[in-house]
């Protein structure tokens, strides 16, 4: 029988630290929340080496008294909870008393603090849970905490950390959310010695949004204020046209605390139903204020998950708040035609730039060529034929001239005539991947080609499904899934050939911290799929090249969608990540259900699907074609018993 052992103090502290301190972002979150609870109006965060090597948090809060500094690093030591009843009315961000002790157990920590009443401050140092220094020191009002060598005594935890860039992005994401939750505080974030964030601290949420996400994001937001039965919701939501391909920009706060809530996210998206396209999601920065007894924040050590006493009530309040704000912003813009007609038109002025003392020379207007009455009779037919034969010989001798000016008439006569299908109509095809009959000879690698049986196009149902007859069977083809698979096969065949196009105007994207991190981590996968992506500073990236099949107008949404897929499947091996990127690319480039297509295009796609066995399922696993034999069809109609 195993003997029960009481763990030593340092081992117990390491276990407890694992619940609170997962990465540098966890350290920054806990320390900044302590600074906010201390009443600071200005907070500076500085990191180096992704926060693993160095973290410094400086605030101008109330500070810590000298005799309380060692107590602050003891487990479950807090100034915010005294009795069990206090847990029912927690209004501060921190209250569990685990943060400082957990951080000190796995790092080297130094504290410099002074209160308003003390003339001298306190310099305190602790390493691995052991006190190293406790002495007087001169310092300004407030507290400065420096954390060095995170996980220096737990090397097993170090190998689970990501690259410095990814860890720094995670820290930046935490700082952004804390700055948005408290616009009354000025936040300053230094990353590797460079300032990347500075909020004004003017208590205006829009100012914080502008500082964190930039002008383009802020311009697409709508202000929201709503109160119902002790529930108050304030903040900003995006206009439907500014919806994004992922949920990464849905930020919710509960009484100033950043939380994750599926119910709030679902209520937000339900309010946007029928206002945004399928596959796009609204973004928001919303703070929900409720009485303390409505919510339980003591669910998880990270305090990001909460429980509501009446979750349906809060979700309904959010739904109606968003609906009201969207309807108020949906007023049609009025154009005052009378005012526009009264506006005087500026007189046309011709500007001329001349040197001093130089006469202005007015060039004559070009005149039209004069008609010649004897044009056709001035050259005999024999002379014209002689010149034509000379030109033909020049074409034969000069290969470049022969390529530039082909003999179209002779080539037309040599080309065998091929009748179009009866269903073909002279309609213009949409701007997508071309689907002519010649596309069957494209760079897709054809496998298991069948005997060329005749394919008869019957029509199209719901502008989605191609109906045709082939080899004695009735076939229904999903045109989007079929075209998506064709493009996917082509992209895989071209992946080794690097078939890509250089964008005349590179596409710049503003992404979230998580999206920025995953894109930079997967640059090799993007490159293997035909994309050239570079870091553009801050939370921006620039796309300079994309696959030939992609419309440059779709690059913005496509890269964001790929980033979202990569975030959800972080454990994929490299080949699977490449296939996932190619599948998303093919889906964007393929014709869509509901598009109007020329019958010749539909017939070409049907032949491509039915005459080859490499197009049976789309890259996402959906079937491309459904077949029904004549026997099965006649049995359904009772012709065969």
List its salient traits.
3 domains, Ribosomal Protein S8, Chain: A, domain 1, Heat Shock Protein 90, eight-stranded mixed sheet, 641 residues, alpha+beta, five-stranded mixed sheet, Ribosomal Protein S5, domain 2
Describe what this molecule looks like in 3D.
- With 641 residues, this protein is of the alpha+beta class.
- It has 3 domains: 9-198, Histidine kinase-like ATPase, C-terminal domain (Heat Shock Protein 90), CATH 3.30.565; 220-326, Ribosomal Protein S5, domain 2 (2-Layer Sandwich), CATH 3.30.230.10; 437-627, 2-Layer Sandwich (Ribosomal Protein S8, Chain: A, domain 1).
- Helix content is 34%, strand content 21%.
- Strands 5-4-3-6-2-1-7-8 form an 8-stranded mixed beta sheet.
- Strand 9 (221-228) and strand 10 form a beta hairpin.
- Helix 6 (164-181) runs antiparallel to helix 16 (513-521), helix 9 (262-271) runs parallel beside helix 10 and helix 18 (555-568) runs antiparallel to helix 19 (574-589).
- It is elongated and about 100 Å long.
- The termini are far apart.
Question: What's the helix and strand layout?
Answer:
Blueprint lengths: L8 H12 L3 H14 L4 E7 L5 E6 L9 H4 L26 H7 L2 E7 L6 E7 L2 E8 L4 E7 L6 H4 L5 H18 L4 E6 L2 E5 L6 H9 L1 H5 L1 E8 L2 E8 L11 E5 L2 E3 L2 H10 L12 E6 L5 E2 L10 E2 L2 H19 L7 H6 L38 H17 L1 H6 L3 H7 L40 E7 L3 E6 L2 E6 H17 L4 E11 L2 H9 L1 H6 L3 E4 L4 E8 L7 H14 L5 H16 L9 H12 L14 E5 H7 L5
Parallel strand pairs: 1-7, 11-13
Antiparallel strand pairs: 1-2, 2-6, 3-4, 3-6, 4-5, 7-8, 9-10, 10-13, 11-12, 14-15, 16-17, 17-18, 18-22, 19-21, 20-21
